[in-house]
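Lab notebook: predicted structure, single chain.

Context: the supervisor wants predicted structures on file for every construct in the current expression panel, including those that have not yet been purified. This is the next one on the list. No modifications to the sequence; it matches the entry in the shared construct table.
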Amino acid sequence: MEFISRLADTTTKTKIVDQLLTGVSGEFDLAVLFVNPMQPYDAKSVYQQVESRIKIKNFLCVTCAGVIGSQREIEYQPAASLLLARLPDVDIKPFYLDQSQLDEFQKSEDVYKFFEIYPHEKPVFLVMPDPFLFDPAQFLDLINHAYPKCGIVGGLASAGHQARENAIILNNKIYDEGLIGYVLTGNVAVETVVSQGCRPVGTTYIVTKAKENVIYELAGRPFYEVLKEVLKHANEYDRKLAQEAIFVGVAMNEYKHQFKRGDFLIRGVMDIDPNSGAGAIADYIQTGQTIQFHLRDARAAQDDLIELLQANKERWSHRHPAGAFVFSCNGRGYNLFGVQDHDIRMIQNTIGPLSAAGFFCAGEIGPVGGLNFLHGFTNSIALFYEPDDQDLTNDKK
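Prediction complete. Output recorded below exactly as produced.
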């Protein structure tokens, strides 16, 4: 298993494609190209030039607002990032899906027929949807049901601000809507790290009254009353932070006695009704679930990412990742941290060195608690390992 990463921008005299392919030769099983649209190049021309110069069996491209390489992150300026992989004994199935096809799926058998893959094969999905004319949450719900506990990782195209302004390319077919991706099975282990960038405040509460996405009561008390009490006992900095944005972490396993990073699905509080005391969050919630309020800032996002990466390093202490895809929210990067290259430096310092590529997304996809979700302000990372006997033993536990 081998991964090669290349990053190119327009600040040098060397042509974009020459930068991407410096020292590259041979044949590759898989390639993903991330392009922030540029002049005189565009995504299509960069894609076609790369394809004409090296042999790639499965080639995917997506346009974005910024790209990520092994050492750098380039935001809001013309650039391209390329990850090439040789994956022996790995079955790679490229696919395209549009909204009308997605709507036609009625049961798991339809999905199995489309992908020609079954749950026992433990597939991993690498996906890049367009955010405007395709419903990624509907797709995730479909795959979660058809392939329980499989991994789905990816990000939403982010170059365009309205429908049909993004380009997603799969094996030389260009689309301006829908979803493109790969399904991987066989001799590969893909571990995901989903850093949602928040830290908890206060304690946990049981939802005692809720309907759809509205929480009416926590532990028998109005949602707003509990929130005010939590913030009353918080420090001044946290109270100020909560005025900008407050989040709810929904425990993915409410039977746990102690919760840690990665145990919560983070969702924003969208609205609060002071009269009824109810709070609306950006997802459905049910009575009996456990929640905890969360806050987000640069320090919390950094600590969360490092802790999750460190936990992954300890779990995979017997192996080193061969390569990685990095899908980071376009609200992170310099906007959040005030410095360039923040997340990729944290990744390399904690679990590197490794070849990596990715982009700044309009929404990130990754698993939390065994289910796959669409996230915001998140860094969703897919780490590729060559499995050995110990990995197979861990799978059986």
